[in-house]
Structures are given as structure tokens and as C-alpha cells.
């Protein structure tokens, strides 16, 4: 199955209010897909539906083989292990160093063996060009470096999909471009990336498949 995400005629609700209607889309392995639209247009609600934070009440949808229609509460952690989620705010734990930030997530998702934890942490930090920064505290890093840590955190469980919700929203243009390039490279390794943004400067850095959210609908933009 090449489709990692398949939505068919879905209406997404938030607080019983329809946000996006008649949404049908497929995302395949290794695709880089922009989610484009103004704040409040439904991009984040779409991502929240994918990772099980919003319940699917209408239409049919599958993510990484999980049916969202009958997704049980106890299945959500297993779905999320197949996903890497990157937010606008870095959500790092300020009282522990980068290594311990990543280790915390790994322990919470079932990693137990210290040698394997260490090997994986050093590997993902290398992937995001933060070799040798594992002992730094979050406040010692720049905003761009902190976002790279959050991407490393999203990678620790070898996700099939990365959901990036306005990941450059708190960054300057040069750093935003670096984060965009990093996520694009990750998609080239076979991991699908959904990159939500309303920043046209970031969006225009390179062309890729685009899903446009506006007026309560999602349309494929040519």
C-alpha cells in the first residue's frame, strides 16, 4: 500500500462546527505536500484529525493502515508512533539538556535499552545537523537549532509521516529556509511530509504539491 494517508469525502468538525467539508485526498510515501491557507482555514484541524486529536465523524479515512473511523483511544499512541509531529512552538523541556529531551520522548514510547537509545539520539541529531549539541540546554540554542531539536524528536521512532504545523512561524526568513530544506531532504528518504504554512515567502522557496484550504474547502492547487 503506497498511500500513507487516504481521506474520502470527510468533513472535519471542531466543537460541532464544520471546518472543512468534502475533503478527499491521498498522500503517498516520500511526498512533500504543502498545506496552504490562512490561519483558521482548517490546516491544523486536518493535521489533528490525522494524529487522532479530532474524532472523525463523517466520511472515511485511513492513516498508516489505521482506520480513523473506528480508532480506539488505546490505539492512538500506536498511530502516533508512526507519525512525527513538529509544532510552531518548539515544546522543549527547559530543565533538561537536548539528550534528555529526546530520551524522555523515547522512554514514553517504549524504548528501554540505554545503548540503543543513545545510538538513536546521536543518529537523529546528526540528521538535523546538531552533532555534538546533545549536552546543550534549550536556552543555549538559537530558535532554528531548537526547531531542529523538535524535528530530531519527531524522527526518533522512524516515522512514516512528518506533520509540520507552521514549523517556521517563529523563525527568521533565513532560518525558515533551512528548516524547509531539512524537511524536504527528509521526504527524499521516503518519509512523507505535510508542511502547513500561511507564509508565502516560505512557500515560494520551492514548488511542490499543494493542498489549499479556503472557504471551508480543501482543493488541490496546480
Q: Care to describe what's here?
A:
By secondary structure, the chain is an alpha/beta fold. The protein has 2 domains: 1-82 and 160-222, Rossmann fold (3-Layer(aba) Sandwich); 94-158, no CATH class. The chain has 7 helices and 10 strands. The chain has helices at residues 43-50, 76-80, 98-108, 114-127, 143-155, 173-187, 200-203, and strands at 3-14, 17-28, 32-36, 60-63, 66-67, 83-86, 161-165, 192-197, 209-214, 217-221. The chain has a 6-stranded mixed β-sheet with strand order 6-7-8-3-9-10, sandwiched between helices. The chain has a 4-stranded antiparallel β-sheet with strand order 2-1-4-5, with helices on one face. A hairpin with a 2-residue loop joins strand 4 and strand 5 (66-67). Helix 3 (98-108) packs across helix 4, helix 4 (114-127) crosses helix 5 and helix 5 packs parallel to helix 6.
Amino acid at each position: 500500500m503506497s498511500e500513507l494517508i487516504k481521506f474520502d469525502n470527510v468533513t472535519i468538525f471542531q466543537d460541532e462546527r464544520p471546518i472543512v467539508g468534502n475533503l478527499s485526498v491521498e498522500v503517498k510515501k516520500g511526498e512533500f505536500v504543502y498545506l496552504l491557507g490562512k490561519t483558521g482555514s482548517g490546516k491544523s484541524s486536518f493535521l489533528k484529525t490525522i494524529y487522532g486529536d479530532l474524532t472523525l465523524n463523517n466520511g472515511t479515512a485511513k492513516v498508516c493502515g489505521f482506520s480513523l473511523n473506528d480508532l480506539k483511544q488505546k490505539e492512538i499512541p500506536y498511530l502516533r508512533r508512526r507519525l512525527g509531529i513538529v509544532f510552531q512552538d518548539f515544546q522543549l523541556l527547559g530543565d533538561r539538556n537536548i539528550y534528555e529531551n529526546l530520551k524522555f520522548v523515547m522512554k514514553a514510547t517504549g524504548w528501554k535499552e540505554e545503548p540503543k537509545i543513545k545510538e538513536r539520539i546521536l543518529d537523529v541529531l546528526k540528521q538535523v545537523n546538531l552533532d555534538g549539541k546533545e549536552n546543550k540546554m534549550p536556552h543555549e540554542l538559537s530558535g532554528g537549532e531548537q526547531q531542529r531539536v523538535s524535528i530530531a524528536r519527531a524522527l526518533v521512532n522512524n516515522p512514516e509521516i512528518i506533520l509540520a504545523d507552521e514549523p517556521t512561524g517563529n523563525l527568521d526568513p533565513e532560518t525558515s529556509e533551512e528548516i524547509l530544506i531539512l524537511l524536504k531532504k527528509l521526504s527524499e528518504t521516503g518519509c512523507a511530509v505535510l508542511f502547513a504554512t500561511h507564509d508565502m515567502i516560505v512557500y515560494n522557496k520551492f514548488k511542490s504539491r499543494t493542498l489549499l484550504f479556503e472557504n471551508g474547502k480543501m482543493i488541490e492547487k496546480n
